[in-house]
């Protein structure tokens, strides 16, 4: 972790949080709630626990991805690795679970799309900010 730019990691985590607010808010809230079987009017726990936990997990993901990329990754490599990690590791893993759980393709596209963009953003930020 000594070679990791902690400010870039923090900004990457914030970018995931902002993306999530847009993605699961105005863009896909209704479709996601319908497909996930979630009542949008009933919170699933205390907001501080949910949002705080989500931010901590985003911070962990960004930090580990920064370690994976190494110090001063080339921009193209970092963005490509982010897209590949989001699509081929995270979304593909979700896809396996969703197949066994009988979840819809639409839900997988929403969740997998978010994580693909999340890690692509991580790559963009970590590739630009050395």
UniProtKB/TrEMBL annotation:
The chain crosses the membrane at residues 6-27, 48-69, 75-100, 107-129. The keyword Oxidoreductase does not apply. Keywords: Membrane, Transmembrane, Transmembrane helix. It comes from the Bacteria. The keyword Kinase does not apply. This is DUF1761 domain-containing protein. InterPro entries: DUF1761.
